[in-house]
Amino acid sequence: MDQITDRTTVNGKKSRSRVLEMSINGETHEITVKPRVMLLEAIRDKIGLTGTKDGCESGTCGACTVLVDGQPTLSCISLAVENEGKDIRTVEDLADGDNLNFLQEAFLDQGGTQCGFCTPGMLMSATALLEKNPKPTRDDINKALEGNLCRCTGYNSIVDSILQASDQGVKPRLL
Ligand code: FES
Ligand code: FES
Q1: Which helix (H) or strand (E) holds 152?
Q2: At a CB cut-off of 8 Å and minimum separation 6, what does 99 contact?
Q3: Residue 159 to residue 52: CA distance in whole angstroms
Q4: For the segment 57-68, what is each residue's pLDDT rounded down to a tens digit?
């Protein structure tokens, strides 16, 4: 839609709000944002999907990763207006109601979720990987997750989670 809806003055400069039609997890949402609003803020504050995490806000931690047209994207450094009309998927898209998907179940089985803060970003990067490469190697997984930081440092269990999800012989642990 991309309509200009109003003009305001901020710090002496003109700022224009726009109405955007955003496709999030298969649903269209109409939101009004200023041009400088980032996709992360639009998803969390305008649409109310708070699964996507706000970590560094500078493109370094990966906590805010969503999929845009299937590609992992750092929503904290991508403008909302740039994503109008694109297919955006967040971590809320993975489960079916209360039923976790196979990747989320594998994270639980392997202890890939510790404090959980990095988990949504990890899940979305892993989802993009598995959609392109259903049988990734450890190296493939490490490369796919290189932009996702885990302060709890449980990287091995996260990699094992993805190997289990891809049915490569990693069995669920006894937790
Ligand atoms: S919050 Fe986006 S990369 Fe850290
Ligand atoms: S599980 Fe705590 S930051 Fe990764």
Answers
A1: none
A2: none
A3: 20
A4: 999 999 999 999
Please identify which residue in the block is written with the tokens 């996702």: 148
The residue ranges of the chain whose pLDDT is under 70 are: 1-15, 173-175
Strand duo 13-24 + 65-68: pairing? unpaired
Q: What local confidence, expressed as pLDDT, does residue 169 receive?
A: 72
| Backbone angles phi and psi of 86, in degrees to 5 | -95, 160
CB of 168 closer than 6 angstroms to any ligand 2 atom: no
Residue with the smallest CA separation from ligand 1 atom 3 is 59
Provide the pLDDT for residue 95.
97
Determine if ligand 2 sits within 6 Å of the CB of residue 151: yes
Domains along the chain with CATH numbers: 3-91 (3.10.20.30), 102-165 (1.10.150.120)
**Residue 159 CA to ligand 1 centre (angstroms):** 20
Residue 22 CA, distance from chain mean position: 15
Question: pTM for this structure?
Answer: 0.91
Burial class (CB in 10 A: 0-12, 13-18, 19+), 142: middle
